[in-house]
Structure formats: structure tokens, C-alpha cells
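protien #1 (seq + structre)
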Amino acid sequence: MSVEPLRLSLDVACGVEHAFRVWTSRIDTWWPADHTVSGEADATVVLEPFLGGRIFERTTAGDEHDWGRVTVWEPPTRLGYTWHLRADAADATDVRITFEPAAGGTTRLVIEHSGWARLGARGATWRGRNEGGWATLLPHYTAATTTGR
């Protein structure tokens, strides 16, 4: 199994600013409970909007589970963060997303998820799990870009 970066792209039917805002400040409206540590439907997902900001979930009991840290913050065109959902921060991988204007007022997201090699023998397995995770996560995001404009 490969440890090369995952490279994904998708087009959403909205402008760049809206696409970026939905991914960042509205992440809590579309992130599914089955992609959290707690699995709680009422958990809150937070992406702090600044370089070094945390990405985490807060349960209804107030417990917080860190998922990563913002490493690139260039609204509305670039976002990057470390990623260690359900893993130790020392095992974080890297996510980079660009939001590019596309035809007809749409936006193309280009996602690169890398850093698998630093996980050693576990890298290929984690890459495969995350590939499946992206496939089930992105439709939630896409749907959210069409609401709340």
C-alpha cells in the first residue's frame, strides 16, 4: 500500500469566499458525528481561525479532544493543518487545501493529505483509512456549501 500523499479535488457550486467560510467557520454545521472522537451527535466541532489555532471537538459534557493545529491561514484561498483525529499529536499528518475560482462562479478545492511516511509501518494503513474517511466526509461539506448563503 502507498504512503504517497492523498490528492483529491472537488468542485462546489459557490464562490471561493463562501467555500472557505463553510470549511472553517461553519465546520460544525456539516461535520458528521461518525468522524469525531466521541461519536456524539451534539458534539461541537471548532476550527480556530488563525495560524496556530486548534481544531477540536467539545462534547456536551465539556470534554475537548484535539484533532490538529492550523499551519496555513490565508483566507479565502489556502488552509493547512496538522491532523491527528483519534491519534496522538506526535502522529499528526498534514492537510493542505486550496480554494480556487472555477468556471461559472464555482470553486475547486484541491486537497493534499500527506505525512504518512513519518508513521513508519503504520503509514500505509492510516493513509487507507483516511482515504475512506475523505470519501465519506466530502459529500457533507459539498451539501453544506449550498445552504446558508
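ok now protien #2
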Amino acid sequence: MTENRTTADPQFLNNAMTSFIQIGSVLLLLSWCFRIISPFVNVVAWGLIISVAIYPLHLKLGGALGGRMKTSAAIIVLIGLASLLIPAWAVAGSTVDSLSNVVDDLKDGSVSVPPPSEKVKDWPVLGDRAFELWSDAATNLQTVLNRFKEPLIAIGGLIFGLVAHGATTVLQFVLSILIAGAFLLNAENGYKATCRVAKRLAGGKGQALTDLSVATVRSVAKGVLGVAIIQCVLALLLLMLWKVPAAGVWAGLVLVVAIVQLPPIVILGPVAIYVFSTAEPLSGTVFLVLAFVVSFSDTVLKPLFLGRGMETPMLVILIGAIGGAIVSGIIGLFVGAIILALGYEIFRAWIELDEPPAMTD
């Protein structure tokens, strides 16, 4: 007995050491691979989400083009790039021109601030203080600028950082759209590969969970991101009609607020105060009414988009959007909402120990 145990112990240790080295090597390789691809995870994830969300449109367009799926993917990519780059170029150009004009006017000493309207005093809380500061700037702008020199420098640095981050974000979205086009061309093979992986992980429920994932991505993309984009466009049109300065910036803030499930009136409300202080009362009232219409349009739009899809709790969307933005910036705002919703739906299906609910497009 002792001899057999002595013989077995070295064999056991040898097998254990071999297994440890094999597992350690695999973990080291996986860790190394992840470190290499980690800068591209969000970009690829967003490209995958876009491709899953618009795949039904891709099929319809390809069918209308006589089965030319490559042409369909190319058209979708070009439309996506145009929809992204044209507004970004316009906003960037107008911002640069405005800043250049301000700098030139400051150098020439030709900057003039119009005196404030008496309506400014009626602003809640800060009305009197704002009227006083605005009046000082109208009479002696240089003195006011010297008084707030350090805060203005800090704000300038913040604006420069936001511009740089915005340029990086646009580049990320461009790459995501190109990646989405590549995924569209290989959608069928990608679906089959995903099903195979899911079956290895979840057995017979692998394909059902894959279908659940696809349905969840499409549902959240349409019901949350789609509605937010519609509200952003409506807000942009409203701001442009009333010629509000930096309309593109305000519309971008509306998009962020809408994604995190807050009413856009949070942004449009202060803008309405500005409109009331610079326009006629009737014009300001119409703007405020339309701002409320834009803000609460989601109550009509979400049932239309989510009525046939997965009703993920809005709290999950909120946490995912905010957490994604904290971790990965603007692109994380989009990716985080969908990824957390996807994780929630898969976890719920696993907890229920039943087949995931059947979904329709």
C-alpha cells in the first residue's frame, strides 16, 4: 500500500503541474490578447451593435437591389458616414469660426456686449446678479474679463479638452460604422459562429439565448437610442428655427440627456429662459411649448418602438448609459446602455431556467 501511494504521488504531482502550466499559459495568452485589443473593444462592440440593429434594413435594401448585398452594405456605410461627418464638420466649422472671430475682436478691442434687457432681472434666483454682471460687461468688458481671468482660462482649457475628445469620438464612430459594414457582409457566418459558441457555453439553449441577444440589442437600439436621436434632431431643428447660439452643442446635450432617460427639458428649459429674455413673449411661449413637446415625445415614440420588443427596465438603461460614459466616454454612453440591457436579459433568462421568450422584429 505504501509503495503504491509513493508511486502515485509523483504521477499526481506531475499531472497537477502540467495542468497548472497549461492553464497558466492559456490565461497568460488570453490576458495578452485582451491587452492588445482593449483599445478597440468599444469601437468593435458599437460596430457590432449597429450591424445587428440595422441588419433587417440591410436585407430589405439588398432585396430591393436584386440581391446585391455588398452594394447594400456600401450604401448603408456611406449614409452612416455622411450622417455623422456632415453635421460634425458643420458644428466644428461654425465653432472654429466663432472662436476665431471672438479672438480677433478681443485683439482689436472691438468686442461690444449689448446691454441686457430688463427681463433678465426676472430670471429666477440669479436674475439681479446676472443683470448687474451683464451691465458691467456692456460698459467695460475688459474689467469684467480681468476680474474672471483665472476661471476663464480654466474654462478655455476645458473647452479645448472637450474639442479634442470630440474629435477622437468622431473618429471612433467612423471606425465603428466601417466595422459595422464588414459585419453586415459576414452576418450569416457571424450568427452561426455565435450560435456555436453559445451552444458550447449553454448547451441546448445556446441558439435561443443568441436570438434573445439579437432581439434585445435591436429593441434597446430602437427604443432608447433611436428615440434619443429623434429627440436630438427635433431639438436641433427647434433651436435653429429660433437661431439659438451653439445649437449643435445644445442638441448634443439633449442626446446625452435622452439616452440616460432624463427629459430633454432639463436642457431646453434654460434655453427657453434665454429665448424669453431676447425675444417677444409670444415667441418665447411658443418655443417653450415646443420644447415640452420635444421633451415628452418619448411617451409616444417608445411604445411604438418597444411595443414588439423586449421591455428592459429603464433603470438598467440608465445605469448602463452612465456607467458606460464614465468608463469609455461618449461611445460608452451608447455601448453601455445596450451591453447592460443584454446582460440583464440573459441573466433573467438564466434565472428563470426556461426558454427565452420568443421575439419578433
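The chain has 14 helices and no strands.
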